[in-house]
Amino acid sequence: xxxxxxxxxxxxxxxxxxxxxxxxxxxxxxxxxxxxxxxxxxxxxxxxxxxxxxxxxxxxxxxxxxxxxxxxxxxxxxxxxxxxxxxxxxxxxxxxxxxxxxxxxxxxxxxxxxxxxxxxxxxxxxxxxxxxxxxxxxxxxxxxxxxxxxxxxxxxxxxxxxxxxxxxxxxxxxxxxxxxxxxxxxxxxxxxxxxxxxxxxxxxxxxxxxxxxxxxxxxxxxxxxxxxxxxxxxxxxxxxxxxxxxxxxxxxxxxxxxxxxxxxxxxxxxxxxxxxxxxxxxxxxxxxxxxxxxxxxxxxxxxxxxxxxxxxxxxxxxxxxxxxxxxxxxxxxxxxxxxxxxx
Amino acid sequence: xxxxxxxxxxxxxxxxxxxxxxxxxxxxxxxxxxxxxxxxxxxxxxxxxxxxxxxxxxxxxxxxxxxxxxxxxxxxxxxxxxxxxxxxxxxxxxxxxxxxxxxxxxxxxxxxxxxxxxxxxxxxxxxxxxxxxxxxxxxxxxxxxxxxxxxxxxxxxxxxxxxxxxxxxxxxxxxxxxxxxxxxxxxxxxxxxxxxxxxxxxxxxxxxxxxxxxxxxxxxxxxxxxxxxxxxxxxxxxxxxxxxxxxxxxxxxxxxxxxxxxxxxxxxxxxxxxxxxxxxxxxxxxxxxxxxxxxxxxxxxxxxxxxxxxxxxxxxxxxxxxxxxxxxxxxxxxxxxxxxxxxx
Lengths: 343, 344
Hints:
The structure holds two protein chains of two kinds. Chain A is 66% helix and 12% strand. By secondary structure, chain A is α+β, with helices and mostly antiparallel strands. In chain A, helix 1 (14-30) crosses helix 10 (292-305). Chain B is of the alpha+beta class. In chain B, 56% of the residues lie in helices and 15% in strands. Chain B has 13 helices and eleven strands. In chain B, a hairpin with an 8-residue loop joins strand 5 and strand 6 (55-59). Chains A and B meet through helix 1, helix 2, strand 3, helix 3 and helix 8 of A and helix 2, helix 3, helix 4, helix 8 and helix 9 of B.
């Protein structure tokens, strides 16, 4: 019986993934995007199979045709919304409303698809969340958040995570989520405080730097440097704030997630993630995008290798869900919801 | 007999069993401490090689093996006469193919940005219904009227007179009617631009800069040149597609960061668009008995006025101004327009 922490490990490498990525990219371009669904399966399989825990790897079972269908729906909706908003805002608004109305349904379908098509040690994951609760957490609560000037945002975030994690299964074993709304409020509040502090500092610095020449400028010209400065402040602040937020939330979520009696832990550091996101962005821009596959690998490795699993007993006792033992029924259910939309 | 180590999972529980694999007479044999299973190879789906990720052997009746020892497993397959890895896996594994693919995708990206996208935008621009493009103009004007520009200070009589001459200009050239809008703006200064629906906007500042109506008309003729070839709509479509692609590509970092490269790529019309609009304006002006050199005069004045404004503003913003410049080779255009005029 193992009770020691088991670290997740990631064995993918940038140089290996670059070759897979670029070959699949060219095939995608040459087939005018159709191949992208097959490329996605390769990509998911590469990341899943290189994610290991206790000597075994994960696997991805999504089929390209199912992904292609989901993509076509997703791209169609997005393109219609984007074009309409640009050319006929009223129609765009109507399409946006329609998307918002079906979004909870699409999200549930995509969770089901994603989890049902993931496996570890031959056992599939699963998602049993109801559509009704999905409409509460993905539609009702976000609307309420808007009307309370985002005061409800951390609460909504907590409800979404609880809905996702409490309804996930590994084989027959349920995941449970124990973080309360209070801890989400704490992360949000600290993030906001940092944003004010960092943003203020940057704004002050920017003003000191260009303020001098602004004074001699004719009034109508000031708008240009002000716009540029505001933009730079936003970028700088977000490069510092976003990693803080992402790391704190991931740690909070996984440190409060259980699989049966087994626990998880996540120990992302703010400094580590900040450097990673900043350098990834920089290298990706400088190499005109060619660094992207390396960036994806670095980020995945960082996030995965900072996670651990603390078993409370024998993990070999997990058994497949009834659904999976029946086999065909489970597959059919997934076929009906063969949607995978990456919103 | 050579065997390959693997892990076996029965698909019913998370139990991991260490096994040895062997292939004999078209059957895969799986042997472990408490397990012996033999399956014909035709009942097993062997995953194609994917980098150095483990290879998975899925049994049709449930259960699978995970193999990490690639070299030995490949040798086993080879000895058993199983076809080698797929073409895709081989391409994904080779640096030569990766390099070819890199060069190919860069060439495709450049070609589609410089030729493909403008070509598609040109076709698409011609198919957008007038009602749609006109509503873009209305929304654009509504948006800028809220801050960037103010109502024109020009007298109604003067506006009416300019509108009449503008109408004559385009009617002589056989162009359908287009809206002419007057605005005042200290921010954008002396300027004129055409919108996707064909509306032409001119600022009071430009009219003040011109010595006479002919110079104003010369600029308007240039803008009508853009309109007649649908440059504004084509530009809008192109930058929308580029923006969309950028957001999609860098989107997972932050859509805010993704907007930066788009801003730089959206720097207005290409040299080619400007030259075509100049040529169009020259012929339109000549038909109306106005020398194309009037446009050259105006270009000179506009450049001087914009450079002057930048110079006043500080020490070195001129580099940014040049980088974002709409008309990069004004001197050459002026020369061409003057040459054109003298030929008359």
